[in-house]
Amino acid sequence: MKKRLIAGLLAGVMVFSLTACGGADKNQGTAQEATQETAQETTDAEEETESDAAEPSGAPVELNVTTTFAGEDTNAQNFKDAVAAWEAETGNTVADSSATSDETFKTRVVTDFEVGSEPDVLFFFNGADANSFIEAGKVVPIDEIRAEYPEYADNMNDDLIADSLVDGKKYAVPVNGYWEAMFVNTAILEEAGVEKPGADYTMDQFKEDCEKIKAAGYTPIAAALGNIPHYWWEFAIFNHQSPENHLEVPASVEDENGQAWVDGMNDIKELYELGYFPDNTLSATDDETFAMFTEGKAAFLIDGSWKVGGIVGACQSDPEDTSTIDADKLAQFDVTYVPGNGDRKATDLVGGLSMGYYITRKAWDDPDKRAAAVSFVEYMTSDSIVPIFAQHTASALKNAPEVDSAQFNELQVKAMDMMSGVTSLTGAVQDLFQGDCRVSTFDGMPEIVTGKVSAVDAVAEGLEMYNNQ
After folding, report:
1. Which helix H or strand E contains 360, and what residues bound it?
2. Closest CA relative to residue 179, chosen from 231, 237, 224, 128
């Protein structure tokens, strides 16, 4: 429309110009005036057309939204409820393509941006996983949004909103944080004569307790080292570092941090050789070893705050119906600190605010969707909604309301109690150490623990690949 209008006006200018060239000098002034008038009309028409294009229609819109609130995520239903409330309040609708967070999901999101199929609003990681679409300019910085909507995310403590690794700007408005800690089956501990680990728990004590649990006929540690060794990988390394340097990827296997990584891998190897993992730990899936824990066959499970929902679901006769929960079974589960070593105290956990809501450039540049996208994120990150999602984790709210523990199940309340004693939360270094560089120690964990590949060689291979990227 705009191109046709300009072309027509330019044609008029050409007619006037030709008349001036073929006529007497007395017509020159008239032609010049006409040309000037037509040029002004062209400018006015362009401004009017651009103004009209920037005006939203005011009609309800459909937002394409992708989050990780799906599957066994504790907040999957909370998200559905919040979306329904926002739709009822605004008249807009949401096309929800949320999926469980895993490497496949991350790849899908990155690919969607590459091919131009990204959503309007995305709840996603704010670390290295987001680098590619931030570098491509496909999401909008919070400061740019605030230039038009000054109150956007003003209920958040900006110091707790993560900076992008690409340009240091803030993009993702956080909702709930995460922590990684150690879940325990207290029924097994009692039968083995083991006390629930506390705030001063050490690796030496942990190994003593594992020996008692093994002697009682149970598997001490629920973990699938051949499938997802992530949590043990992280804490084993952390146990040879401190919160101050854990997020520093070593420059070489020979430097101090590089040696910490090697020592961590060898610690896992020692636990494997002592027989503290399931007999099939090298071939089992994470789901299988998790079932060992919830079915009373394994005592300890290191995992994330999101696993609370999975444990609660395993205590229900109908995983989708909370009214079918077996309260006695749920009471057997607790969550505590990960055994510490050296400068890392047991209460120094891995965690943080690693995810948040992004508004994509695609939605921002759409006059009909811009206001709706801002409204949606503001609703989902409001003081009244965030506590519902944060529950037993953490948030960036400036004024977080008091939590009524009566609203939560027993395991959630135990998690809140555990979190009250945490001395620090440090991000996961594996979120920085991504891609093929992790293969030698992640996929290669079975070779490390069985001695087929030395920890030194495995770590060296990964670091060399990382540092040569």
Report:
1. none
2. 231
Spatial neighbors of 381 by CB under 8 A, at least 6 apart, are 153, 155, 156, 173, 174, 175, 357
User: pLDDT tens across 268-315, in order?
Assistant: 999 999 999 999 999 999 999 999 999 999 999 999 998 998 999 999
> Using CA atoms, how far apart are residues 312 and 409, in angstroms rounded to an integer?
8
Helix (H) or strand (E) holding 4: helix 2-22
Asked if 354 and 126 count as a contact pair (C-beta separation under 8 A), the reply is yes
d(CA 326, CA 305): 21
**Main-chain phi, psi angles of 175, to 5 degrees:** -115, -70
| Structure confidence by residue, pLDDT tens digits, 154-205 | 999 998 898 998 999 999 999 988 899 999 999 999 999 999 999 999 999 9
Element (H, E) at 410: helix 410-419
- Supply the pTM of this predicted model: 0.71
Residue 168 token pair: 């240091």
* Region 62-176+354-401: CATH code: 3.40.190.10
Fill in the DSSP letter of residue 401: P
405 or 420, which is more confident: 420
Distance CA(300)–CA(202), nearest Å, equals 14
For the residues 140-149, what does the mean pLDDT come to? 98
Report the candidate in 179, 172, 135, 134 with the shortest Cα–Cα distance to residue 153. Answer: 172
Spatial distance between the Cα atoms of 424 and 346, rounded to a whole number of angstroms: 10
Q: What is the CATH number that goes with domain 178-352+410-467? A: 3.40.190.10
The secondary element (H helix, E strand) that includes residue 352 is: strand 348-352
**pLDDT reading at 64 higher than 90:** yes
Q: Note whether 62-176+354-401 and 178-352+410-467 share their fold.
A: yes
| Rounded Cα distance, 199 and 468, in Å | 40
DSSP letter for 289, please.
H
The mean per-residue pLDDT over the stretch 79-103 comes to 94
- The full set of domain ranges for the chain reads 62-176+354-401, 178-352+410-467
Please write the tens of the pLDDT for every residue from 209-244: 999 999 999 999 999 999 999 999 999 999 999 999
Backbone φ and ψ for 276, nearest 5 degrees, come out as -90, -10
Q: Cβ–Cβ contacts within 10 Å for residue 158, how many?
A: 12
H/E element holding 291? helix 286-294
Name the nearest CA neighbour of 338 among 328, 348, 353.
Answer: 348
Contact call for residues 133 and 172 (beta carbons, < 8 A): no
Do the strands 298-304 and 62-66 form a parallel or antiparallel pair, or are they unpaired? unpaired
Residues linked to residue 302 through DSSP beta bridges, in sequence order:
182
Please give the Cα distance from 105 to 113 (Å, whole number). Answer: 13
